[in-house]
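Hello,

Our lab assistant flagged a job as stuck in the queue for most of the afternoon. It eventually completed. Since we weren't sure the result was trustworthy after the delay, we are filing this so someone can double-check. Below is the sequence as submitted and the structure that was eventually returned. Let us know if re-running is recommended.
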Amino acid sequence: MEQPLPFVDAHVHFWDRAAFRYDWLEGTELPFRFLPEDLDGAPESLVFVQADCAPEQGLAEAEWAGELVRAQSDAGAVVAFAPVEDRAALPGWIEQLREMPAVVGVRRLLQDEPEALLESAELAAGLRRIGAAGLSFDACVRHGQLPALLTLVRAAPDVDVVLDHLGKPPVRDGWSSPAADRWHASIRALAAGPRTTVKLSGLALEAAPGPLLEQARPFLAATLEAFGPQRCMLGSDFPVSAAPPDAVPYTEWFEGVAGLVDAPHERDALLRGTALRTYRAAV
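-- returned structure --
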């Protein structure tokens, strides 16, 4: 029997509602607690991405998550919360994050924020400070926010920016929709920046009922064409993307998307190489 290829999960969330407060989880059917042992698979290493706990708990969450991922693998990494637009608080926050060996990047969730924040001088200045500290920035936006994100990226050209979830494309609208055309144009523009990478992840909540990989294939293929496999990485977005009825099982997502490329070195880049390089988790 063929052995599964090794992979890095470049986007996974863990939480424990007994220890941290997650207002967005209230009223959902997502689990009370989700930890590495709850994954139905054996990744080579994990990249924890902040799970949007109460902002004042962000540093404690990063330290807790670092212990989780480093217990699973020495190459585990953490993308932590930081108040990027807060000029007064950010320098001290970065100083504390840099004392945590697993922390390699920052995410300030932007998907529900107004366009004015994405285009603000404060956010751009904070992003430049993040880059100067040697940290990457995960950008989680919806497809309609991609033009504003492009403006932000151009205002901070020396920062390694990782686009989460393909920019949440309009999968349920279909590949032939005007919204998909606008998304595609933005993806090509972002890919033109030499320091941008993208995660092939998080599409379960963007799709209509039915087989996810079938709906997502043209969006995944377009992203692979724009960025190239060497700048694409795979993530599960579990347990969030495990919730919909048509969710793809954990290891099947990695296998299915990796099957979109033919060359072994391209599959290795998708499954592990890009994530290890981007998050410096191999060090």
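-- support follow-up --
The delay was a queue issue, not a problem with the job. The result is valid. The first helix runs from residue 58 to 72. The chain has one domain: 8-278.
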